[in-house]
Queue: 3 jobs
Job 1
Amino acid sequence: MAYGVELQRRPALLLDPHPGAPTPERWREWALGQKLPRAVDLFSGGGGLSLGLERAGYKVILAVDHDARSLATHRHNFAGLALDLDLSSPAGIADLLRRLDGIDLDLVAGGPPCQPFSRAGRSKIRSLVEDGTRDANDSRRALWRSFIQVVEQLRPRAVLLENVPDMALGDDLAVLREMLDLLERAGYEPDARLVEAWRHGVPQHRQRLIVAAVRDGAPFQWPQASRRVNVRDAIGDLPRLRDTTGDAELPYGRPDGAFQRRARTEMDNGHRGIVWDHVTRPVRADDRVAFNLMRPDTRYSDLPAHLRRYRTDIFDDKYKRLGWDELSRSITAHIAKDGYWYIHPGEPRTLTVREAARIQTFPDHFRFAGSRSDAFRQIGNAVPPALAESVAGALLRSVRGIAPAARRRRSERLKDIRTRLLAWAKADAPMRRWWYPGDPWRVLAAVVLEGRLGIDSGVAADFLARFPDEADAKERAVAEWARPLGPRTVARAERLVRAATLLRAGAEAWFESDWEDAAALTDAQMEMVRLVGLQDDGVLLTAGALRLAARFTGTQVHRKRSRSDGRMLLARILGVGADVPSLNAAIVLLGATTCTATSPRCSQCPLAADCAGARRPR
């Protein structure tokens, strides 16, 4: 009774293997005999991605995971081989490659877990590697690298990777940019996008990173959005539980709408009137009262004080009641531990296993092995099958298409764009060298003295002619230089003197933070120093750079989702490698000086020939 309710333990659900599965000895013969395009699902979990692939027209001949319950689920729902392999180890990869040797593959798909990189600057990481105090091969990168290694070895016709948005947006997009570069080097034409799952028939707010790559065929075309589905569409036909926690088998009535009818289509004849796994957790009496008081827009802090068991300053969204006519909040693995984020829209309880599965777009015949918590965890970790089906269908159409002979490969076009940007930067650098890589002191002086990126009045040039190194920036000499230029320049010069005093300790001082505080940099200025001056290979996001990218592609990324789609677009243009800091600087300066908001000088832009929004002479 420690939880305020009587705990109800249910026996773990044991599932038989799929009736159409071949024996291990016959699997290779079975796989080679498949008429449908053959797919492999790595890091498969219980099979949300696999289900979407098969609904799109692929046959998943093999799946890999390292979780016993998920593998039992996959073996029950799919005929293909489900292997327990650790793909972070060379032995696990070797075993997989050996089994697939000689089998022609149409698709390698998966969602490799991606642990965050260190928050230390990548320049600092490089210095630690050079000093021998850090291993150059960060083990946290192993799983996505394993995925790419398998692709490089098996060379399927297409690649599909799904992951959380953090893989795209975290760590200056380092993982995504390197991944796309490796796929290009392997002969693929990759594309990446942050996709809203609700646009593809999933009744929840859920954003995912999708990377799609085609080796041969037409360029990948992203699928069109489908009809929006809400919570009522997904679960409105499931039986009410009233004061119970449900049961493993319950009768349900007639379906209402296309979503509900499709959810039931593959129930076998003996179970057509039965819904499986419509079970939830017991609810405390006081929580039941609180749930009855809530509407979809009620916050936890709105509840009466005697019904709140958690601090409202930390847990303001501790409880969330779903709305019948709205999208659900994203179903995640957290639901296995706490269902209070998913309160039923019509009853004072949390969602059942089947309701969570429906909102993830799993059909009713799909069962989940293990305990109730195991089922919730597998559902929350899964790729929504409807999203996977939509993207995989578009990918299959691209593979079967024929690329126009006259159309340049996207990767070749990007290389040409980078070449032109670097040539422009080389010509511009002698006039504004303090904005380009090579000397962090010059970049620091420029961003402090000029006040905003890309605009130079000659003050920085004059200062650096007098004080070309931080060792030269002594207090008295700088004060004498700044005094005739007015109080604003005096104040900014004093910030530089304070920073220079701290930087005289040596090159390593650039990786300390004290000088940043002394220079009183804004976030944008610090990014410029870090990404250009210190030559980190991140993505420098400015209004001008986003505007240039938007005009170039004919999109609105500078106005909508600039922190996500805009950064991804800039990252795609930048690529990876030693040229990234120079490319960063060139894009920022072009946006500030040439591709201006009101009077763009397109004739002076190196990208005008390929720019969708360029003003061309008539």
Job 2
Amino acid sequence: MTIRPQQLETGRSESFKEQLLGAPLEDYALIGDCETAALVCREGSVDWLCWPTFSSAACFAGLLGTRENGFFSIKPAKSEEVLGDEWRYKPQTLIVEKVWKTAHGEVLVTDFMPPRGKHSDLVRIVRGLHGTVRMRMDLTLRFDFGRTIPWVQRVDHHLRAVSGPHLVVLRTEAPLEGEGMSTVSNFDLHEGETICFVLSYGSSTEEDPASFDANGALADTEGFWTEWVGKNQHTGQYADAVQRSLITLKALTYRPSGGLVAAPTTSLPEKIGGVRNWDYRFSWLRDTALTLLTLLRVGYVDEARAWRGWLLRSVAGSAEQLQAVYGISGERMTNEWQADWLPGYEHSGPVNIGNKAADQVQLDVYGEVIAALANTPVADDDQWTGEVHSMVRKLLERLARIWREPDSGIWETRGPKQHFVHSKMMAWVAFDRAIRAYEESGMASTRDREERVQGWRRSREAIHTDVCTHGFDTELNSFVQSYGSKKLDAALLRIPLVGFLRADDPRVLGTIAAVEKHLMKDGLLYRYDTRDGSDGLPPGEGAFLACSFWHVAALHLCGRRDEAQTLFRKLLDLRNPLGLIAEEYDVDGKRQIGNYPQALTHLALVVAAIVLEDGDGPWTEGLTTDATC
């Protein structure tokens, strides 16, 4: 457990169990089985796990509350003097290793989740490396986001915890005893000895999950990840950083459907003590489409096809009902509510469950989705070929009717809809990519198809002219967030990345300069200025890290290459020791904030590395670069 500095300073009188449990985000490792994920603190505690899937209710919710909201800790007992530690991922895997060094010896704790079979498992292997160390295990299971205490009983050689449909089984050779509605174990570990703790999730109406060899599962898990990493074709100066981000993206993927969660967490605040706390355990079309393009670029063709399958299934049906956000299997209902019994991470409430951004119109997703679909290679027997072309046509028919309307934009503002420039630009991308795909495939050769493509060309030209006329402010010498506004938006750094204008266009250079002048602090970029409340929320958030990675790419493309390299290295230094990074960064507090780890940030990192090393990126390769207005 970590006691926050502000708790000490304010002299809180909370009891041990009432003290907040969550540690700094930099102190968490991610483990997962590609259907759900857990956050394991460097101090030995699993403080967040939703079972059985990413979007299920958490059974360990201590990250957003106290010990009483659920955690699973293994660490040296209080009687042990800890002299130091080592913390790392096993190379090319999602297996975490923690070495505790005490006055009496050394212990290795290995944490992982095996690729899922019938059940989901969390495995913790404790191995004595030197001497004899007294260890302590604490297990507090609380279902329904830390609210429900389960019925716990011993059955044969394992422990069963049941609550409604939920069943969790703990198997271990360590001695167990009850202590204050929790389960604990105190044991001595000698050099060469191993004790395993296997926590398995199942249904309370079915047979208990079967036991298995934990060390064999460790070998299988290592093989799974190293085999997957072996498909990565990216090499270069930043290959290690790219590899870790790709592993993280794979871990955030719901394997049964191919959907990608934006993050495995909910309500980690964008400002400590603020209310900008959102549930990211869902699949955004934007993130999934960008992942598809990124995977294609580094050689994961089969995985990209799986992502495309999720896209097609999710948006299937009427183009009028396209959503920006879906459930991990393509569900359309993501109702938002508040878990008011949780105090929130460092008292940053409310804790929101669900996300009503699914109800918003976000025009930019049309561009993201169509760019992804248009660039995915197809095999001769690809069952999706006809569906892809049909879907693209329907989406563009819809977009041609609505692109002139205001929307909620990429940042999902909760204020009035606006004519966001980024949204219009991405509408242009939608038509541009479809035109190129039809022309390159020869599908525009028939008369009816040529007429269709001609209509797309007219829409593309109209959008480009409209954006350049109404989205550029001559006084600021910059594109602005929305038509008629004086506000800037760091998302507009993507203008040269998507080929809307050349990187050396004076308007692009002016936009980069204006964003740097008005949205930068200590070299990092904020999305936009939140102080006027126009987004419908109280002001205040951290620097948005994806924007800073876009800044890297924009700097490189416009010729400021040394600055781009320097900034990229600075951003890499913001990652935690394991290579993980959150949504935002608190410049003043020098810490990561927002949901963690965040897919969009890791995606932007990979793209920036590709741009730095190859001179382009998944969105710029092969694009027309002579767009003018």
Job 3
Amino acid sequence: MLIQIHISNLITIHELDVEFQAGTTVITGETGAGKSILIDAILLVLGSRATGDLVRPGQEKADISLIFDISRLSEARQWLKDHDLHQAEECILRRTIYSDGRSRSYINGTPSTLQPLRELSEFLIQIHGQHEHQSLLKTDKQRTLLDRYAGHADLVDHVQTLAEEWQKLTQELAVLRQRVEERTSRGDFLKFQLQELEELQLQQNEFIALDVEHKKLAHASELLKNINLTLGFLTDQEEQNALHALYQAMQALEKVHQVDPKISTWIESLHATILQLKDIEDELRRYLDTFALDPERLSWLDQRISLLFDIARKHKIDPNELYDMQQKLISEYNELEYSDTRFMELEKKLNTLTKFYYAAADKLSQSRKQAAKKLIDELTKIIRELSLPHAEFNIHFENTELGVITGYGIDKIIFQIKTNDGQPLQPLAKIVSGGELSRIALAIYMTTALKYATPTLIFDEIDVGIGGRTAEIVGKLLRRLGQTHQVLCITHQPQVAALGHQHIRVTKTKKEDAHYTQIQSLTQEEKINELARMLGGVEITPRVLAHAQEMLERI
């Protein structure tokens, strides 16, 4: 759960530390005091868009830190371990926003991008606000809520995986079908190209070898002349050659090697050099023995190289690439020849995959319908408690079009409602007024919240448009929800505020032309005064104070 938030230099907040408790925490304050800044700060840490104008005027940066107790959150701990970020039983998320618009995020002190923060936040906190009411009118949102309530995430993931495999296989079949249709013309073209290349009897790296041999034969006379000159300098000249000179030098040193021990080292070096020269001599003589002038071979090389150049120019490639191109053409030709068989294999695989998909989708549909019955009863009961005594809630199922494979299965989910007797059930979007939508949305959030794995739920003024007895019922529902979750609720309703386990008040003051938002956890007496403010007008009378105290005593 969320145990602490620290904020500095964010909009009207200078420096602020707030500690949160388990249960239901209500947050109240005058309109414009800055209650939403607290929620905005949490959203910023969890990855929402940040701009430089969020930094308090005159300051370089704003800083926000959230501390969560994750001792009982196995999924969050596992996520942190998988990302090498797990440190203790607490998780600290931090974001720094600079006045020039830059920002930096951290998870347990380690710099992080926003995407990992958003992933981690799914295990920590859920935020519901007024703006979400309209999203409830969308069938996709309704299906997601039902799936979450049903708790069959594995089934949903399995259907989605099968649908993705089906789409991938369908695309592969479409490509192969096009190839089959083009096979005759493409196959004839490939066959013609391959016939021309096969006549060449190409070898891998052949052109490089031909080029080396051609250079050797083309410069044969010059090559032989210089090799013979080299042998002459090394060994063949009778009066003076390198090998004879080295022998004489070694013999001269041997006559005095006892004079200085260093001389033995020089003698060894000369001996090694002589051996190396004799090896070179042997190699040069073998080269001469195997080398022969061959004008016919040279002529053949000229023709072969010229032919390879012509073919390569025709295909607009380098001669060195001819062999690889031939192998690719062979592969493509074989694939075309095999395409009929491959096409039949893929069609068979697709038919099997389709059967698996519909079996899984039907299982998911049955699970949804079973969960829907329970959800209908629970929601109808809560909605009737919220000053809609004749309301009736329903979840209507329609099948998707036959043959259409979707990632969410075969069900189109439509939330239906009627708020008065004699009315037919109609989709949520067609029947409810703004006030009715607020109450129905609240009922849906309350009912499905118990299915959230996240321990902390934030409700941002979702009780707008209600009051009196209905507001008191909402407060009781929120308090009940606080028995299993940590609940933070921003409210303007005193009936809701009275039922919180913890009460936080937000105020705004002005000092020297600057505004300051302050947050205070209230004592019992302070809570009575705050409820009286919410109940009364400009003047708080003893009767209003007594009413506020009575509200707390009824809990």
